[in-house]
Every structure is written in C-alpha cells, then in structure tokens.
Design a protein that fits this description.
heterodimer, A: alpha+beta, 5-stranded mixed β-sheet, 11 helices, 50% helix, B: 87 residues, mainly alpha, 4 helices
Chain lengths: 286, 87
Amino acid sequence: MKYFWSNFFIPQEKNNHRASILKPYFLLLLVGFYLFNQSVIKFVSLAKPGILGYSSEITAQKVLDQTNIERQKNGLEPLQYNSVLSESATQKAQDMFTNNYWAHTSPTGTPPWNFFKNVNYKYSVAGENLARDFYDTDSLIKAWMNSPTHRDNLLNNKYQEIGIGVVNGILGGVKTTLVVQHFATPLNTITTKTNLTSITPIPQSSSETNNAQILSESQTKYLSPLLLSKIIGLIIFSLIIIVLFIDGFITFKKNIHRMTGSSIGHIGFLLVILLFMLYTQQGAIF
Amino acid sequence: MIIPKEIKQKPLEYIFLGFIFLVGLILYFFAGFNSHNQRLIVYGLSASYFFWSLIHHYKRGDLHLSIVIEYLIIALFGIALLTFSFF
C-alpha cells in the first residue's frame, strides 16, 4: 500500500522517475475533476437560485464612515448623508436585482440619473459607484480607491452629499450583496438632510420581501460559490505544487535527467498564478 | 548558492521566463480590480508560458507530444483557476 501511494508522489524507478500525479494523463484527470466541480456549482446556482450565495458584513454606516475617512485623509470635507440619495441608491440596487443586470445603465437604457429623478433629487453634479460580492467594507473601499474612476468619485470635492444602498438579493442565480453609492451636490439646499445616527437593517430586494422562506434564509450564513470554487481549486493547486517541489528536489539530489516538462518552470508559473489569486481577493466594482 | 542543473545549462532561457512572469505580475497589479484586463493578462501569460516551453524543449531536442500536453494542461489549469474563482 505504501509503495502504491509513493508511486503517485515520489519520483522513482517504478514510475520512470516522475511522480505519477505529474504525468499528463493524471494532470488532465485533476483539471477535469476541477472543471466538473465548477460545472456542478454553476448548475446548482442556476437551478436553485439562492442556495449558494454571498453573506456580507457590509452596512451603509460602515461605507459612509470609510468613505469620509478616505476624504479626510486627502484633506477633503466629509460628505453629508442624505436619505433621499440613499433611496435612489437603494432603488438602483433593487432595479439591478429585478432586471438581472450589473451595469450603470440598465439593459432597457435607463441611466443612473433616472433614479435621482425618481426620488425628486435635483442636482448640479452627480456620480455613481457600484460594487458586488464583497464580504467586508475595508476590501470594498480599497477596491474603489485602487480604481482611478471610482477614486475620482470618492475624492471629488464637487460633491457635498452621499446616499448609500446596500441590498441583498439574487443576481444571475447567486445570492449576493450589491452596494451602490450615489454622490451629488443639490441644486438648492432645501433637500432633505438626515443625520445618520442609526442605519436600518439591509433592505431586501422586492422579490425577496414577498417570500417569507427566502427572507428567513437571509439570516443564515451562505456558502459563496466563489469561495467554494477557490477552496476546490486551491486543494488541487496545492497538491500539484507540493509534488512538483518533491519531484524537483529528488531529481536535483539524484541528478536524474528525464524527458519531461520543467518542474522549475511549472512551479514558477503556478506561483505567479497564486500571487494573482492572493491579489484578487474578492468582489467586483463598476 | 545551489543552482539546478537545468538552469545552469540554459540560463538565458530561464532569465527570459522570469522576465515573462515579472511583466505578467506588473501588468496584473496595474490592472487593479478591472477583471476584463486581468483576464486578458492571465490569457497572455499562460500563452507566453506555453510558447516558451515549445522553444525551450525544441532547443533541448526533446519536444515530444507528452511534454506539449503537460505544459498545455498546466497553462489551462492556471486560466481555469482564476476564471472560475474570480472573474
């Protein structure tokens, strides 16, 4: 039994001095297994929307605080919270869930500015930031700050007010949290201003509020399909890279010359992919 | 410093491979959170790695089908891992 397993992981005469796991047919099997798992995850997401999803800790209060911290760091005045703008931001998030899209302009051609108009907010200048699939506010703000166009909105000294919509719902078959920031400066100063002392719980998208079962599910922790993909991928990734290291070390020590791919090249390539994965932590912005 | 024999034999080829990885890393980090650009960079890096392997093994005189398939699978695995997990 011991010899059977060593055949998979350790280069030796029996396996022609190449760990069996690194042979093309076995690599193909591992990658095939990974792709099969991804197909199952995708199928479950589409067939049973909401079973897999993203549970976020983001609140409008945290987004407001972090935004103003970034502005103050850059010597700008903090933005005033405006409940009317928050209503337009929430409507925008709900519209994305209802019409199943992820963009500034809806598939029917509705621009972001229509949501400002819907709540009767008259502005001299306005902007919108979108984000999805983020777990925590720090990563979300970091992502926006790393993107020049989103950063311009966050640090624009022409804006005086902000509204934030943080809405849970199902987008593309996956349960997620959408965050919408609406920035603006009112045309007149009579627009409703609210001191943000407390934020109401995250509103649910309209399709969810009518469904008690789904509403109760929102209290539970969801397993993100992205997280599941990452875990399965990382297990296979770790297995390949560990065996490559063992293989490289043994062949180097024993000075074995073989007609196989370069273990050093494979390790280098996979380490670069690992760095990409560590950098691309979570979420998407628009 | 211990340098593996295969690097000692073809140092320039491995320096060039290191350069490909470095350029890929720099471009990826500059792409920020723009997933479209990041995806293009991953495709480009994987294709570059695959073509490097063809030249490397052709020069070594051991460019066999099994080696080509091995590199192709590793390159595709890198793409699949990032595509399914992040993009």
